[in-house]
Amino acid sequence: MNIYTLNLGELATNCYIVETAPDKCIAIDIGGDPKVFLDFIKSKNLTLDKILLTHGHFDHTEGVKKVQEETGVPVYIHSGDATMLEGGSSSLAPFFGRPVIKIESYTEINDGDIIESGNIRFTVMHTAGHTKGSVCYITEDTIFSGDTLFLESMGRTDYPGGDVDEMRESLKKLKNLKGDYKVYPGHSDSTTLGNERKNNPYMRNL
Questions:
Q1: Could you tell me which of 103, 159, 158, 109 has the C-alpha nearest to residue 136?
Q2: What is the three-class DSSP state of 168?
Q3: Residue 138: its H or E element
Q4: CA 57, CA 62: separation in Å to the nearest integer?
Q5: Up-side HSE of residue 30: CA atoms within 13 Å toward CB?
Q6: Does residue 16 contact residue 29 with C-beta atoms inside 8 Å?
Q7: Strands of 120-126's sheet, edge to edge?
Q8: pLDDT (tens digit, 9 = 90+) per residue, 4-33?
Q9: Rounded to an integer, what distance in angstroms lies between the CA atom of residue 196 and that of residue 10?
Q10: SS3 for 113?
Q11: How far apart are CA 186 and CA 14, in angstroms?
Q12: Which of 77, 94, 104, 111 has minimal Cβ neighbours within 10 Å of its Cβ?
């Protein structure tokens, strides 16, 4: 399973491109720069199959509409964050002075759902705390954690829809997974679940 990382948008959001078959891929969060994204997958001779969103904040969705228009692929988002794609302030775009880009076609997902692409299956884990509908996508030994879990840190809980108690419960769910995982967060560097269990102050004592 090849994983490519692009830093897209003004907030340098990690967009993960996962090769799910020799000529097919999915994208996890497209936070801006749709042309950069489209040019990259073209350079790799990949056809986009699906877009998976970890949550609905603009810095994870700003490039989605243009990419969807160009490719026609389905977009997946947890039901708790779906309204963020329809406009309004909950996406935080107005707060950061960014345009509200409405995404009208999407599929709602929930905890435990399975999304398949090529030879890969992604399991949805609902991890509220940063937003009501934040999720992690788990496949094989890999977690795409969005803005729930960062390298020795966690996502903010002070935006609308954030909740520190829900975040603690979500971090506990991740901590209690059996075995170790590579963790690819929504911003900054990758890590491992083993490292976070040991060194993350927000997870260590749960």
A1: 109
A2: helix
A3: strand 135-139
A4: 9
A5: 27
A6: yes
A7: 114-117, 120-126, 135-139, 142-146, 182-185, 191-192
A8: 999 999 999 999 999 999 999 999 999 999
A9: 27
A10: coil
A11: 5
A12: 104
